[in-house]
Amino acid sequence: MSIQVIMSQALLGLNVGVFYAMLSLGLAVIFGLLNIINFAHGAMYMLGAFVALIGYSYLDQWFGINLQIGFWASLIVVPLVVGGLGILIERTMLKRLYQLDHIYGLLLTFGITLILQGLFANFFNVSGTPYPGQPESLSGVVNLGFMYFPTYRLFAIVFSLVVCFGTWYVIEHTKLGSRLRAGVENPQLTQTFGLNVPLMVTLTFGFGAALAGLAGVLAAPIYSVSPLMGADLIIVVFAVVVIGGMGSIMGAILSGLALGLVEGLTKVIYPPAASTVIFFLMVLVLLFRPAGLFGKEK
C-alpha cells in the first residue's frame, strides 16, 4: 500500500470528520451548557440542507418569490433560520422539561425528528435531491501533490475547522463564554449579577441548532439532500460525543476529526469494518474511561 493512497484516504476521512466535528460540537454545546440530550440535532442538520435547497431552487415555484438564495448567502441565512427554529423549540417546549428527567427531553426531540423527517419526505425524494448551487469559484480540483482533491471539499474542511475552533475559543476564552458557563453552573447566583440566564439558555440552544444547520449547508453540495440524511448521521455523532466526553467542547472537535480519519483509513485497511469501527472504539472508551477521552470524572 503506497503512502499516496494512505494520505489520500486520510484526507477524504478528514472531509467526513469535519462534519462529525461540527455536529458533535453543536451537541456538546447544548449538553455541556444546558444538560439537554438533543436527539433532534440530526434533523436540524437535514433542515439546514433543505433550507439551502429550497432557497436556491424552489422559492419562485412554491412561494412565487422571484429570488434565488445562492450558496454564499445560505451560509448566513440558513443558520439564522435553523437557529430561529431551535429558539422556538426551546421556548415553547423544552423549557417545560428542565426540571424533569433527561429522558423526557430525549423523547421530545426524537418526536420532533420524526415530524420533520415525515414532513420533508412528503415533498422530496427520500433517496436524495442534488443541490445545484455550488459556486463556480469552488468547482474543479486542487493539485495537492499526492492527489487531485475537489476544491469544494477542501473549502469545506478549512471552513469547518475555522468554525469549530472559533466556537471553542469563544466559549472557553472570552467573557461571553465565561458568562454562559457561570449561568449553567449557578444560575441563581449569576442572575443576582444582572445576567438574563433564561435568555442565555435560549440563545445557546439556538446557536447549537444553527451549527447543525450550517453543517447541512456545507454538506448539501457533497451529499444528496435527503429527509434521512440526519438520521443516517446522528447515531455516529452521538458515538463521537461519547468518545470525546459528554459536554466537552474540545473533545467533540478532536474526536470528530480523529474518528473521521480512522474511518477513512479503515476503508483502505479493512473496508467491511469502516461502518462499525467508531462504535467499537466507543465500547472500548466506555469500558476503560466512561467519562470519555476529554470528559471529567464525577
State the main characteristics:
mainly alpha, 298 residues, 12 helices, globular, two-stranded antiparallel sheet
Folded structure, characterized:
- The protein is an all-alpha fold.
- It has one domain.
- It is built from twelve helices and two strands.
- It has helices at 3-34, 41-57, 59-63, 71-92, 102-121, 151-173, 175-185, 187-192, 197-219, 229-244, 249-269, 277-288, and strands at 141-143, 148-150.
- The chain has a two-stranded antiparallel sheet with strand order 1-2.
Please describe the topology of this protein.
Layout: H1 3-34, H2 41-57, H3 59-63, H4 71-92, H5 102-121, E1 141-143, E2 148-150, H6 151-173, H7 175-185, H8 187-192, H9 197-219, H10 229-244, H11 249-269, H12 277-288
Antiparallel strand pairs: 1-2
Helix pairs in contact: 1-6, 1-9, 1-10, 1-11, 2-4, 2-5, 2-9, 2-10, 4-9, 6-7, 10-11, 10-12
Tally of distinct domains:
1
Shape: globular
Q: What is the first-to-last residue Cα distance?
A: 44 Å
Mean pLDDT: 87
The parts where pLDDT drops under 50 for at least 5 residues are: none
Radius of gyration: 19 Å
Query: Going across the major beta sheet, what is the strand order?
Result: 1-2
Q: N-to-C SSE series?
A: HHHHHEEHHHHHHH
Supply the number of helical segments.
12
Tally the beta strands. 2
Strand content: under 5%
Decide which structural class fits the backbone.
Answer: mainly alpha
- Helical amount among residues, as a percent range? 55-70%
Main β-sheet description = 2 strands, antiparallel
